[in-house]
Model the fold of this input.
Amino acid sequence: MRRPMVAGNWKMHGTRASVAELINGLAQQQISADVDVAVFPSTLHVLQVVSGLAGSDFAVGAQDCAIDPQQGALTGEVAASQLHDAHCSLVLVGHSERRSVLGETDQVVTRKFAAAQSSGLTPVLCVGETLAQREAGQTLEVVAAQLSAVIDVLGVEVFAQAVIAYEPVWAIGTGLTASPEQAQDVHAAIRAQLAAKSPELAGQVRILYGGSVKAASAAELFGMPDIDGGLVGGASLNADEFGAICRAAGS
Ligand code: PGA
Done:
């Protein structure tokens, strides 16, 4: 049985004061012990969140890492090994905002995935189609190609220590959520793609849904057989709303 996971992606939000407030709100949430919960603050706030949530069941992740795992001469970047040293346990790779706004290619995403794992971090690989791609009937093809880019270079076994997040780009921050059936179709296709190489591994990998997840929509989404939790953006900035989403993932 896969343990559900809910991850909060804070994106480029927060000040020291608002982050402190959010930490306090999170610490008050009752979350069932059978759900893994992680938050992904901006890199600037990682240390504050790690110390603020110390002793809680919240894991802390980063939103990105450098293509090289070790520290070195790469201005402006943060290495996965440095994130590990700061007590991050996870890192998002290939978020659509980085793919589209910052031009991250599948090759870059794959290097970041490898850098994360070699530093002991669990990568959360984000995949998803744009609205134009969905309307052109290319959803499964696009998502399969994003997944293949990693599998072809690193092998399918790397997914034993990774999480996948399916995030349709048209649903991110737009208030439009994929219907549970639309999401389930893509999640099932992702799992089938992994199963073609390793049925056992496919059964174990957690696949999260992301894209305007709210407390009101979470339970129905998480109730689908191949949806193992959520990657939550906007709603994760409100501790009570995020807590409610986490509770929806529990039994
Ligand atoms: P959203 O963001 O929940 O605000 O749509 C999700 C994400 O981008 O991870």
Q: What stands out?
A: The beta strands are 5-9, 36-40, 58-62, 90-93, 122-127, 163-166, 206-210, 229-232.
